[in-house]
Description:
- By secondary structure, the protein is of the alpha/beta class.
- It has helices spanning about 25-35, 55-60, 85-90, 110-120, 140-150, 175-180, 225-230, 240-255; strands spanning about 10-15, 40-45, 65-70, 85, 95-100, 105-110, 130-135, 155-160, 165-170, 180-185, 210-215, 235.
- It is about 30% helix and about 20% strand.
- The two termini are about 40 Å apart.
- GO terms for molecular function: NADP binding; shikimate 3-dehydrogenase (NADP+) activity.
Amino acid sequence: MQEKKQQKTKNTYALVGKNISYSFSKGYFTDKFEKLGLDSSEYVNFDIQSIEELPLKIKENKQHLKGMNVTIPYKLEVFNFLDKIDKKAHKIGAVNTIKISKKGKLKGFNTDVYGFKKSLQPLLENHHQKALILGTGGASKAVAYVLKKLNINYQFVSRNPQGKKEISYQDVSKEIIETHHLIINCTPLGTHPNIEDCPDIPYQFLSEKHLLFDLIYNPAVTTFLKKGKEKKATIKNGLEMLEQQAEKAWRIWNEK
């Protein structure tokens, strides 16, 4: 009697983004699955040039797709492709985690908030009352949400400022640097391979009172952080934030 070969179905998880071959998520989850002995799970990249390509990617993988992470530049654009959005993600205005139900319904969450808060909070001191958020993309929205919850006043710095909460890089004066002791880089400036790049702020006015947080994790010490370190500021990169948000995403995907 011939034994029927049972084919194992792979549980597929994916990262949705653009030019994401460098991706942290794929390596992180592949290692995680290996450690947990989950040989029936895989993590892949949905590297798409336009968010309009997402439905096709989902359709191609619909039998096995359990969840997705979303990265630059689709954290805002992905809203139009979701069936449901978690209250917090709706408030923030950015989604970086998607859970797929058995019926194929897509629900959006934001785990950047959790990751950033977990990573930032242990470093905060009493004088960290005011913050500058460099950049206005999807990740900056999660950062602003956390700062609001922690009662830290913040100002966005943008190349194209709009509204009261935003100023231009040219407006970042000595006085602003000296009164804003927390500075968070939410721009991609300084990411490998363009490691010489950094946001254009007057670093000469930084001091040991400053805390510089960079959402970038590759390289581990960006030019932005290096310039802070030279002025004896406390520095932190985005690796722990990424790990924490990934773990939160994993819990969301596996919640019954």
